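tool=predict chain=A
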Amino acid sequence: MIHDIGARARSGSSRAIPAGCCLRRTRLGHVAVLWSVREGRPQIDRILLPTPQLPDEVRAGMARSRGGRFACPEIDLIADRIAALLAGEDVRFLADDVPLAACSPFQRKVLRACRRIPRGRVSSYRGIAERCGLPNGARAAGTALARNPFPLVIPCHRVVRSDGSLGGFGGGLPMKRTLLALEGVPLDARGRVPLEMLF
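tool=predict ok
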């Protein structure tokens, strides 16, 4: 239940009403969940990967939600679960925890395929593309994952190159290594994931 979102948010309007930001401090830095209200329901707009300092959009979201004026238990719960994931806990997110409607049809396929990678395993960009019906689309899959608005909930850090090298990650390769280590994914002496870990 959303507290004090105002009459416009409860009126059933399909327009997004900015509500605020839910922030958690973790061992990797501050992680932020930006959310709004659509049709009277809270919806996550973006998840920002941990950073040492707060981005401007987080500060703006915090200003909007200062004093719990736009508190939302559903969003708080997801933020708590993200923080638990970053503490090394085995956290599973539900398919409807984040909305994919704003993503392109291909990106939705890619993000759904990424979501199915189990904790402690990885997939390759090529493997994700093949699951989406685009066997030669590794680069397109990588682009879709680079634009993932919901990192951690949709675990794009679990996608690597076909040779086991890490590829890219919005939070940087040190964070990707840390996230994989938290999930028990080993790296060899060359910094690559052993190919037997591929899902």
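The helical segments are 7-10, 56-64, 73-86, 105-115, 125-131, 138-146, 173-182. Residues 1-17 have pLDDT under 50 and may be disordered.
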